[in-house]
Structures are given as structure tokens and as C-alpha cells.
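User: Fold this one for me? It's N-formylglutamate amidohydrolase.
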Amino acid sequence: MMSSELEQLSQNVEILYRYAKGPALLLCEHASYHIPECYHGLGLDPAHRRSHAAWDPGARDVAIALSGLLNAPLVASRVSRLVYDCNRPPEAASAMPERSEIVEVPGNRGLTSAQRAARVEAVYEPFCKAVTQVLAQRKAHDIPTVLITVHSFTPTFHGRVRKVEIGILHDADRRLADAMLANAHRLAHRRIQRNAPYGPQDGVTHSLVRHGIDNGLANVMIEIRNDLLATPEDAHSMARELMQLIQPALTALGVELAHGGGRHDA
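Assistant: Here's what I get for N-formylglutamate amidohydrolase.
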């Protein structure tokens, strides 16, 4: 790998616990609200720069907590999804949206093909390369792997209140989602739904397809309402709750936690 690629990887994507040997790879595509200086804040209203439009609040904290509980590596973007949404393919308009719900993104208006290609190269490709690297390493060591992506969503969207608290999302491969939903009774106090508040029809399963289905891996996207993740402590508590769905689902799929989970291997 060229040194320039290594620099891009270190700047715009992070790999945590790369050598952990648990049975999952975690992704967090919307982990950061950071907008590199070269994009001049995208012209955003300051009030919107750390809003849900720019990232998924609490998702990274949940992903890190799950990483510890599952003894699993985590790949997370270090750049706001308004610069480039790593859960969208380059040809999708929503990869670099001009508007996100009520938030206007002036810096994304009228992008040229060259400008779009530069963002793909700077943000999307390093993220995908990081995922590919971790998966190749795990395959080389014959480590069973499922893919889990972690997201959060707003309690209201276009003025409509969302009652769902946890969404279990899938595309064509529903194995892991089905196995988790079969244990939803373990979290009877939570409103858990399949493919809610989004589903494949909304274009949100790109990572599941590219990094999961295309590699033959059972996969799932977990969406958590972000008012349940107001503090790091809330996020850690949510991760422990989610393990009540994930752990029995892994067992049902014939995958066990390495070393009992809860640790990372160097």
C-alpha cells in the first residue's frame, strides 16, 4: 500500500481492535460529525454541524461497547456523512446530499464529477479498504464472522413521532436479523421492529450488501433511537441490552463468542 493511502486511512477512517478474534465485524459509518477544513463547513448553519443530519449521535459509543462485549474489531468513519455517507454507493445522490430532512447543505450543491470523485477517493474508498483488510485478515486466520452495522435515528422525522426504539434491518439475507428478532421477547420493555424506521427501499442497506452479502456473511443493521443514547452510560447500557439479542442469535447460527467475549486480543 502506498504511503498516501495509509495517510488517508489514518485520517478518515479508524480501525479499532483490528486483531480481536470474536465472531463479528462491527461497522459505524456515521460515527463522526467532523468536517475537514478543506470543505469549509459545507456552508452549514452552525446549529446543524453537530445535529443528527451530520452524524448518528451515540452510535459510535454503542459500537465500541459492543466491540468489547463481542471481542470484535470495529471500522468507523471519521468524517461527517454530509461530506460522504459511507453507507451509500458513489452514484447515489444521497452519498453527498444537498438536503438532509430540514437541513440545507450548501457545500453539496452543484458538485462537479471531479469534486464527487475526490470525496469518493478521500472518504468512501478508505472506509471500504479498511473493511476489506479486516475481513481478509480474518479469513486468512479462519475466524468465523458476521457483519453488524450500528446506527441511530431521530425520535421525530419531518414532524412525525417515531415510536420504534430499536430497528433490526436486513436486505436479502435475513438470517441474523431473524435470529435476533426471535429473541425480542428478552427486551419486552423495548419497541423492536423489523426494517424500521428504514428498510431496503430507503437505500440504507448498501454496507450490508457490499460488505456482508457480497462476502457471504450473515449481516444485520441495528438502528437505535438516539434519545436512548443521551450519555455514554446510556450507550453502554444499550449495548448490554442488544447482547441479549445478539448472543443467542450467534448461537442459533452456530457461531460462538471467542474467549467468552468481553475482551480484545492484540
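One thing worth pointing out: Residues 3-260 form a domain with the Aminopeptidase fold (CATH 3.40.630.40).
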